[in-house]
Fold each of these.
Amino acid sequence: MKTDTGHPFARILGRAPRCNVRGRITDRFDAFVETFGPPEVLKWKYYKLVFWNFKRQDGAIGFSLLVAFSNNERPKRGLIGVDVSSIDLRDFEAFMSWALDRIGSAMNGEDAPKFLNGADFVIVPA
């Protein structure tokens, strides 16, 4: 079993997502939820943005995983494309490697998924 090596990123809640899209990860929606927890959701008139925000070890906010859906659409059971955005391009590669490693470890059974059956839940502002 693979152990966590203390990657330098942590999830944060309650902040607006970063929108400078620099890449995309394609996997099942539940893989993201089981790895990173239920997403936050922002709703507008015609669509909603499902996202996860992360910060670096030094506290700088810098990364988001983003998926836009129409308001009447639910995440599909198959593969979806999740945009990866960051403020600074220099840290993008490290974050992308970390995110792919976390998803791969959880889905391949190397690490236990942190959030089982969380795909039906979201985090909304109070």
Amino acid sequence: MSINFDDPMNDETFRTIRENFAEQLVAMDEKTALVNNLEFTQQSMKDIANMAGQPATLEMHGEGEIKTMSDGTRYRVTRDGWVKL
């Protein structure tokens, strides 16, 4: 999964995502967090969006899908989660 924002995250949001998803966080840049976690609640996403002061989009990705981070690093979804290419 990925959590996506239209604008860069503020420091508080960045820190909260890092702390709350530490074990499952694979990569993060200013607008995207890649996580290996299937347990999101509506409330946790609402809290993240409120903290960010902007909409947060949760995307589900299927095996083989590729996501490119802002620095050009690419990650692919495998059966075991995100893998850096």
Amino acid sequence: MTTLPPEDDPADLVGWVTLVHTRELWPDADVLEDDVLTAYLRSAYESCVAFAPALAADVEVPESWRVAQVMQARAVYRSLKAGGRDQVGPDGFTVTVYPLDWNVRQQLRPKRGRPLVG
């Protein structure tokens, strides 16, 4: 079950997010054509669904999962942009990109703190 903001068009829904919501969370996505951004979002959605725990049909998709999908789409974009080097950016300012990194995983399956045993 996915509830959309009133300004979003349900026809734009790609996985858990819309193109409008994606561009709000990832402003640099404005440089991508809608069909290219949709491809990144579909790929990210598939990765996130494979990792996320199952939700009952009547449970609202957590906002953290929507954020995770956008984060993963951005990571896939950067990975493809980096090529075989797995890094993107000018010398001395590179960022290494990883598939489904720990930030995305944390959004989908947050690690709970363990109780202290004394």
